Amino acid sequence: MLGITHFGFFLVAVFLLNVTPGPDTAYIVGRSVAQGRGAGLVSALGISAGCCVHTLACAFGLTALLAASATAFTVIKIVGAIYLVYLGVRLVLTKHEARPAEGAAQATAPAPAAAPRPLRQLFVSGFCTNVLNPKVVLFFVSFFPQFVTTGTEHKALAFLTLGAVFMLMSTVWNSFVAWVAGSVTQRFSGKPGVKKWLDRTVGSAFVGLGLKLATATR
């Protein structure tokens, strides 16, 4: 149907890939920790939009050309690594100051969070995190063709259908991750000391992922 083969196995494989932590998951958790559920959910949508770009590129042959170019792979790898390190450093250096006490009621009030980033900026950041990861490019060009019938006249439609299913499953899972991470973080919203270490931990993970991406090979 639609030039797709072994669809059931595709669903299982996508589920297992989604539940395996990676840069996208780390980014969503980081944004949820920094700004709450809403920021995490918007970031998840941005990442899904990035997958849409890869799906279109794969459907029309652009991903294969990019994967075949060592120069293009290196450029995207370096840009993506720098971006992840930048995000990580921002989290590590985020300041958390307790609100001065002004009476008994104010003494127990939660500390103000760091200035939130606009939702549009969060969406774009999630989008860039996904699009600038060359491993995602290689994943699409090596994984998706295995589920497209050889010689089918509907190859582009098959890629688009598989991509749509992949994005739907990823969005559901990533939204769940954002919700859980945001819920956990909400419990520590009035404890700047704990929040500071959460940000530093996630920020350090971002830096580590960036360095790992910078040294990645094809």
Description:
It is built from ten helices and no strands. Helix 2 (23-35) runs antiparallel to helix 7 (119-131). The two termini are 33 Å apart. The protein is globular. Residues 98-115 have low confidence and may be disordered. The protein has helices spanning 7-19, 23-35, 37-59, 62-68, 70-92, 104-107, 119-131, 134-143, 155-186, 192-214. The chain has one domain (23-95, 114-214). The chain is mainly α.
**Structural domains: how many:** 1
Oligomer, anyone? single chain
Low-confidence stretches: 98-115
Provide the residue-averaged pLDDT: 75
Largest sheet: none
Number of strands: 0
What value does the Rg take, in angstroms?
A: 20 Å
Which geometry do the CA atoms define? globular
What is this entry, summarized?
Helix content is 74%, strand content 0%.
Structural features:
218 residues; mainly alpha; LysE family translocator; cell membrane; membrane
Please describe the topology of this protein.
Blueprint: H1 7-19, H2 23-35, H3 37-59, H4 62-68, H5 70-92, H6 104-107, H7 119-131, H8 134-143, H9 155-186, H10 192-214
